[in-house]
Amino acid sequence: MPMSPLEHDHRYGELDQVLRAYVGQPADDTEDKPSAALTAYLRHTWHTRPWALAVAESQVREYARNPPGRLRLRLGEFYPVPDVGLAEDGIQDWLFLLADHIRRSVEEGEVPPPAVPETHWEWHARFPEMGQFLGGWFSQDMPDEFDTHEAAIADYVAGTQPSLVARLAGELGELFALDLDEAVYAQAVAELGMEVDPPVPYTPGGWLAQVSSRLSMPAPVYGPQPEGDD
Question: What is the rounded distance in angstroms from the CA atom of residue 114 to the CA atom of residue 80?
Fold first, then answer.
């Protein structure tokens, strides 16, 4: 019978995170060097959830040791490894290689230094609320739903929990701290789901600065206000 969500996460949750990092990326790990995808996973996880690396190493290695047969995969009793561009008979050795790289990173303290995200997965892992904001309110359907970019921003602010709006403001501050050039700001908004151009005359970076300024404005207060002390 298919796995329950709890069983899936217990057995394969961090394995799933590792393999998601390979979406759109080549699985070109070697014994001497991890791929860009695995490096992105290691960098983000070291700086956000370092304890999860030991879980990842254990789950990847255990899966490689006990690969499921086709029947159990079809029944939903095992996690199906997504297509990473490798031949089926090479998957097991590749998984052992990933586990070895993760173990070496932990045991030898090989921590990738902070850097600008290098993969689609890393952009979304590092800036999740920006992905929600740009992908949800500035997709290609945005001009059909809103008259202006400002109207879309106002709709996001009005319909989103204040704590998430604050998280977006914090992520924008973290993005600006990277001191990117405009070409990388353009890459960032595209990776995070924006499918329309910024309003004229703004560049992507200039428009994000406007969004940040808009989010820092105090929310309007309606209705009668308490009188101050005389």
Answer: 31
Contact 170, 177 (CB under 8 A): no
How far, in Å, CA of 48 to CA of 226, rounded?
Answer: 43
Parse the chain into domains and list their residue ranges: 5-107, 127-215
Residue 79: C-alpha distances to residues 8, 74, 121, 220 (Å): 8, 10, 20, 49
Q: Is the pLDDT of residue 210 over 90?
A: yes
For residue 186, the one-letter residue type is A
Instruction: Determine the Cα–Cα distance for residues 208 and 46; give it in Å rounded to an integer.
Output: 28
**CA dist 20 to 11, 98, 104, Å?**
16, 13, 21
Q: pTM of the entire structure?
A: 0.86
Measured distance CA(226)–CA(35) in Å, rounded: 60
pLDDT, tens digit, 9 for 90 and up, residues 115-133: 999 999 999 999 999 999 9
